[in-house]
UniProtKB/TrEMBL annotation:
Protein name: Cytochrome c biogenesis protein CcsA
Source organism superkingdom: Eukaryota
InterPro entries listed in its UniProt record: Cyt_c_assembly (IPR002541), Cyt_c_biogenesis_CcsA (IPR017562), Cyt_c_biogenesis_CcsA/CcmC (IPR045062)
Boundaries of every Cytochrome c assembly protein domain copy: 68-316
Record-stated family: Belongs to the CcmF/CycK/Ccl1/NrfE/CcsA family.
Protein topology in the membrane: Multi-pass membrane protein
Pfam families cross-referenced by the UniProt entry: Cytochrom_C_asm
Gene expressing this chain: ccsA
Molecular function per GO: heme binding
Keyword terms of this UniProt record: Chloroplast, Cytochrome c-type biogenesis, Membrane, Plastid, Thylakoid, Transmembrane, Transmembrane helix
Assembly and interaction partners: May interact with Ccs1.
Function: Required during biogenesis of c-type cytochromes (cytochrome c6 and cytochrome f) at the step of heme attachment.
Keyword DNA repair in annotation: no
């Protein structure tokens, strides 16, 4: 009874903190000058992380199994993993650049999990026989940690792709403007005067433009650096999770691989991010090329993690759910 009450308290506190953090995040995005507000936002993220940690530990003690037996618990654990990655980037002093990308993932995942949409799944139950194994902690925790790292790394790569695309558009516009200047220079005396005036305006605006391009280049390098490392970490977790799952499947079902929908999409995810790592380490290809692969991988992960559960079929059907609209 005490643990059940504590679980409800932590759930409500974490959901309330998420609501406050969302408001602070929106205000911080609109008003960059308020440094104290950003610090309050980060304190809210840390408090929410500890609330989620307490929630997971409480369910673990109360139900006497590792809290990864259904979709609700895995969503809480996924959000908890997002918070860890966010805080690593925050304490690495990558404050407003990268943590602003990872924070929404943690916030909205937890907000969805603790909302009323999954009311029926808040109540844990006795584990099905196939889940009553010491492999539950090893396999599922590695898989969810892998999903979290791959999703965060993919988001960093997607942001890199957007910034690079905008940069290329600006380059095309500038090149067109340079051609126009040459035409004006060759046309007439009036065109030469107009060209000189435009040249003066360009010289006046060159300094801030070059500074802006410098910061964009620095941001692209940071996104590429951290995106690659976070995805590499996620790929390691995913590989460990798939291998441990194969061993567990052999113990539970008598076969290492059954081509279950979940297994199939996990293999597709693993293959796609293996391609990402190959493209990323190829010096003949640009960072934008690997970012495109990461973008595809971002979509595939959600199909593997969330979409397959909507079907409710296969050997992993115990992770399916039904939305409850109040």
């Amino acid at each position: 009874m005490i643990f059940s009450t504590l679980e409800h308290i932590l759930t409500h506190i974490s959901f309330s903190m998420v609501s406050i953090v969302i408001i602070l995040q929106l205000i911080t995005l609109l008003v960059n000058e308020i440094v104290g507000l950003y610090d309050s936002f980060e304190r809210g993220m840390i408090i929410t992380f500890f609330c989620l940690t307490g929630l997971l530990v409480t369910r673990w003690i109360y139900w006497k199994h590792f809290p990864l037996s259904d979709l609700y618990e895995s969503l809480i654990f996924l959000s908890w993993s997002f918070y860890i990655i966010h805080m690593i980037l925050y304490f690495k002093k990558q404050k407003k650049n990268l943590s602003a990308i990872t924070a929404p993932s943690a916030i909205f995942t937890q907000g969805f999990a603790t909302s009323g949409l999954l009311t029926e799944m808040h109540r844990s139950a006795i584990l099905v026989p196939s889940l009553q194994s010491h492999w539950l902690m090893m396999h599922v925790s590695m898989m969810v940690l892998g999903y979290a790292a791959l999703l965060c790394g993919s988001l960093l790569s997607i942001t890199l792709l957007i910034i690079t695309f905008q940069k290329e558009i600006k380059k095309d516009i500038i090149s067109l403007f340079d051609k126009r200047k040459h035409l004006l220079n060759d046309s007439s005396f009036f065109g030469e005067i107009q060209y000189m005036n435009e040249k003066g305006n360009i010289l006046q605006s060159t300094s801030p433009l070059s500074v802006r391009n410098f910061y964009k280049s620095q941001l692209i390098e940071q996104l590429d650096f951290w995106g690659y490392r976070v995805i590499s970490l996620g790929f390691f977790f995913l590989t460990t999770g798939i291998l441990s799952g194969a061993v567990w499947a052999n113990e539970a079902w008598g076969s290492y691989w059954n081509w279950d929908p979940k297994e199939t999409w996990a293999f597709i995810t693993w293959t796609l991010f293996a391609i990402y790592l190959h493209v990323r380490t190829n010096k003949n290809l640009q960072s934008a090329d690997s970012a495109i692969v990461a973008f595809i991988g971002f979509l595939i992960i959600w199909i593997c993690y969330f979409g397959v559960n909507l079907l409710g079929i296969g050997l992993h059907s115990y992770g399916s759910f039904t939305l409850t609209l109040n």
